[in-house]
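hey so i finally got around to running the thing on that chain from the lab meeting. sorry it took forever, my laptop kept dying and i had to restart like 3 times. anyway pasting the input first so we r on the same page abt which one it is
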Amino acid sequence: MTAIIFDLDGTLIDSVPDIHKAASDMLAETGHSALGIAKIRSFIGNGVPALITKIMQEIDLDHEDRARHAVLEECFMRHYTAAPAVLSKPFDNVRATLDYFLATGFRLAVCTNKPEAIAKQILHDLNMDTYFAVVIGGDSLTVRKPDPAPLHAAIDQAYASAAIYVGDSEVDSETAQHADVPFILFTEGYRRASINEIQHQAAFSDFSQLPGLVQMLREQASGWSRARINVEAR
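ok and heres what got predicted. didnt touch it at all, straight out
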């Protein structure tokens, strides 16, 4: 069984609007001015604690003040948990591509730094939960991406003999490298570096391109190839 493991934020779904809304509510409740959506977007990828740390740095709070960090994180989570998928939506052609992979015998899973319960709630609210046999979140283990353990756990729980990881960021690329798993980069997500600065075996800008890339990689000699394949947007 071959598994395709997906990151969530910036890969399967555009979740920035809901994250920005929760961050804005947190800042308003604690007496701070809101930050722009582009700024919050640039903070996404390493999980909620890292998001709060970056917000604290941006508004000139001592990010090493653990008590204040805990208060802000609790406030953010309270707002975000109440409405994590009101404004979020899948990227174009995601559903059709997931349908194709299931129909052709792939096992699908999610490996994200978002808390597991919220990730599952979002997938449920967006009617996407039935696609995924496994969801590993940032709090599922004692470590989070880019440590390879969450990705290895997703592969193991999917009972897969081979796997590929699809993500949108430097963190996802580093995770795949550490796990020795081929990585396909979705270029329209939340990456901060240029495409050429992120190590990947294939890159795509529209999910309709992903099945072809997976097939091309599978056709390479002896399992997943490390050959570089880039598909430009049409």
